[in-house]
């Protein structure tokens, strides 16, 4: 329990110290935000800070910090370290920079931001990459909830309902219709009203789980020093598997696709640390709690892995929640495994719409033009969900997600250099970008869905590639173009 509390304190301290440092380096000011400068009633809609924070938390969290943390807990309490330091030094920086760079560039999508700082070729790659990634997320978070709802209705009501209502297809259609509305309607009509409620539920569930683990004497949280020798039950190496398995709750490229949505709703740059860095720290706390719950509730990684294999992560969440919190836990678990993925899927499709509109400069305040993007996007999602084996595509999502985080961090490092920030401050983004470069390259070389190379090859190649990336960055920015800085963004706008 000492380890758990120490990590929890580190996360909170990280927000007030390192988060403050990141904010200071970025040099926030009182310039008009995009929502204030030109509200359009659709995507650029001013909202209160607490509402934006809860929406951002649910945008980036959903089931990520629960499912990922439970899977990561199969490596034992060592995963706490990745959650804590990944959040403070990597994820918080990544989310803050992606949100604030978008705010400085009139709410631009992350693909446009990366292209501004890493070149035209990378802009084109990122546009394709982002849209494909977002549609993948949207489809996965439509099929999964539809299947769970169908199963729950069947078990609860059985033959008393028509067969059509019990089918997964029926609920999939309803979920996709909701996605269409959430993608098309102004951000404050559905997302702005529903998300804060589910964000609060996500927090309450995590706090309740943590409280029961601490208060109930039959549970004893393992300490880090007692379990350093733990090996994953399936023999998976920590490097780089653990750093890709636990994305949401440490660092996740998907967050960068969501942050611009809230950058279009802020009324002051001073909200940035709370909305972006703060939501990431909150997600880290949720992930820490669920990782602790996994290894504590099942009293070891072997039993946890067996439970995940037998019931799936949704079943594990339900079992832990109902055992620790009774009927209240059951309700919260159902909200978690059904509502939370839906609230990630709808914003994934919405972000895809915004990415395409930025790409082709399509005015989204126009109802017809907005519908012309929303309807085909959902049609493609429906086709994939009902026709293709999405499980094969989803295997590549984790790697794609962390590769996106790597690219966003490199773009953030170039941003900090180009706009005249102290030279060493750009390393605040460049160092985690280097780390994620090593993770992304190593993972795809050794993973089952990648090249399946041995660790003796994947490890050194990954480290060399990361070193080359850092070397090129240092050479081109801190040495060759040391004095080549631009005026503040506001002066160039």
TrEMBL record:
Main location: membrane
GO biological-process terms attached to the record: cellular response to starvation
Membrane topology: Multi-pass membrane protein
Domain CstA N-terminal: 3-138, 164-294
Record localization: Cell membrane
InterPro entries, alphabetized: CstA, CstA_N
Domain of life: Bacteria
UniProt entry tagged with the keyword Ribonucleoprotein: no
Keywords: Cell membrane, Membrane, Transmembrane, Transmembrane helix
GO cellular component, one term: plasma membrane
Transmembrane residue ranges: 79-97, 124-143, 163-182, 194-215, 235-254, 275-298, 318-343, 371-390, 423-445, 457-478
Family according to the record: Belongs to the peptide transporter carbon starvation (CstA) (TC 2.A.114) family.
PANTHER family (alphabetical): CARBON STARVATION, INNER MEMBRANE PEPTIDE TRANSPORTER
Protein name, entry field: Carbon starvation protein A
Higher taxonomy: Bacteria, Bacillati, Bacillota, Clostridia, Eubacteriales
């Amino acid at each position: 329990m000492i380890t758990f509390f120490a990590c929890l304190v580190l996360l909170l301290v990280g927000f007030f110290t390192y988060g403050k440092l990141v904010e200071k380096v970025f040099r926030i000011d009182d310039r008009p935000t995009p929502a204030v400068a030109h509200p359009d009633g659709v995507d650029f809609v001013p909202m209160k800070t607490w509402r934006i924070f809860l929406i951002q938390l649910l945008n980036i969290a959903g089931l990520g910090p629960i499912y990922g943390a439970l899977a990561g807990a199969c490596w034992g309490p060592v995963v706490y370290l990745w959650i804590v330091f990944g959040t403070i030094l990597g994820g918080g920086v990544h989310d803050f920079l992606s949100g604030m760079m978008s705010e400085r560039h009139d709410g631009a999508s992350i693909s446009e931001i990366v292209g501004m700082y890493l070149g035209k070729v990378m802009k084109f790659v990122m546009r394709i990459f982002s849209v494909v990634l977002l549609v993948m997320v949207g489809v996965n978070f439509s099929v999964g909830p539809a299947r769970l709802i169908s199963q729950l209705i069947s078990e609860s009501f059985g033959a008393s309902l028509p067969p059509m209502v019990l089918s997964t297809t029926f609920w999939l259609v309803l979920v996709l219709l909701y996605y269409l509305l959430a993608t098309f309607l102004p951000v404050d009509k559905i997302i702005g009203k529903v998300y804060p409620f589910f964000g609060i539920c996500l927090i309450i569930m995590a706090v309740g789980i943590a409280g029961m683990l601490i208060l109930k004497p039959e549970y004893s949280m393992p300490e880090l020093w007692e379990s350093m020798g733990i090996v994953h039950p399936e023999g998976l190496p920590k490097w780089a598997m653990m750093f890709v398995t636990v994305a949401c709750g440490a660092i996740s490229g998907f967050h960068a696709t969501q942050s611009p949505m809230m950058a279009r709703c802020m009324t002051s740059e001073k909200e940035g640390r709370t909305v972006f860095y703060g939501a990431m720290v909150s997600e880290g706390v949720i992930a820490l709690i669920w990782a602790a719950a996994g290894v504590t509730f099942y009293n070891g990684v072997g039993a946890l892995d067996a439970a995940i294999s037998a019931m799936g992560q949704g079943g594990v969440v339900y079992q832990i929640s109902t055992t620790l919190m009774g009927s209240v836990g059951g309700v919260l678990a159902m909200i978690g495994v059904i509502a939370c993925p839906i609230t990630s899927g709808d914003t994934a499709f919405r972000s895809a719409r915004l990415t395409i509109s930025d790409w082709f400069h399509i005015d989204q305040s126009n109802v017809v033009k907005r519908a012309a993007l929303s309807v085909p996007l959902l049609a493609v999602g429906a086709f994939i969900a009902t026709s293709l084996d999405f499980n094969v595509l989803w295997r590549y999502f984790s790697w794609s997600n962390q590769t996106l985080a790597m690219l966003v961090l490199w773009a953030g490092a170039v941003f900090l250099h180009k706009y005249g920030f102290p030279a060493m401050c750009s390393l605040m983004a460049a160092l985690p970008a280097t780390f994620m470069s090593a993770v992304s390259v190593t993972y795809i070389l050794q993973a089952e869905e990648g090249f399946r190379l041995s660790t003796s090859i994947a490890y050194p190649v990954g480290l060399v590639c990361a070193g080359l990336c850092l070397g090129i960055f240092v050479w081109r920015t801190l040495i060759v173009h040391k004095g080549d800085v631009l005026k503040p963004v506001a002066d160039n706008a």
